[in-house]
Each structure stands twice: as C-alpha cells, then as structure tokens.
Amino acid sequence: MSMTVQKQTNDLGFTFTKTKKAEFIIHHNGRRAAVLRGKRALAFREDMISLSFADLQQLMARLTGNYKHGNERTAKNHPRNRS
Is the pTM of this model over 0.85? Predict the structure, then answer.
C-alpha cells in the first residue's frame, strides 16, 4: 500500500510514500531523497497530520537537507554564475 501527496500551488517538489514497514520514502522531483525509519518516521507521521500542504513541503525539505540556506541571492550575483 502506498500513499502519495498530490501537487499544489506551494509545491517545492516533495512527495512521500508510506511503505508496509511503516517507513516513509521522501522524493524530491521524482528522485528518492530520504528514507525515514523508526522514531523519525513516527515523528513525521504525527507532524504531517496537523500541517498544511505548504508546511509539510517545508518539513520534508528540512528532513532531506534540501532547503534554502539564505545565500541564494549572493550566489546568483557571483561573477562565476552570471550569464
């Protein structure tokens, strides 16, 4: 049995699938980004019940380490990255 989150407007590209073993596989843009097992899976399950879609996207970003670090504007303006 698998359960997948549908895409919405605040979509950061994260989806998740729950496995039979009570694990959660988090995908980012269709690629596996993390597998949550044990205590982390239980905490994720409890959190996802009370979170909105946008907050759930942010949570999955934090859990996978794929979130904004605050230096994106600086990196974009660096001479090496200008077109």
Answer: no
Number of domains forming the structure of the chain: 1
The domain containing residue 34 runs over which residues?
7-65
Per-residue pLDDT tens listing for the chain (83 residues): 455 555 556 788 899 999 999 999 999 999 999 999 999 999 999 998 999 998 999 899 889 886 666 666 666 677 777 66
Tell me, yes or no, whether 78 lies in a domain. no
Long-range contacts of 30-37 (CB under 8 A, 24+ apart): 33/60, 33/64, 33/66, 34/63, 34/64, 36/63
Q: Does 21 map to a domain?
A: yes
Q: Are 24 and 67 in contact (CB under 8 A)?
A: no
Cβ contact 36:21 at 8 Å: no
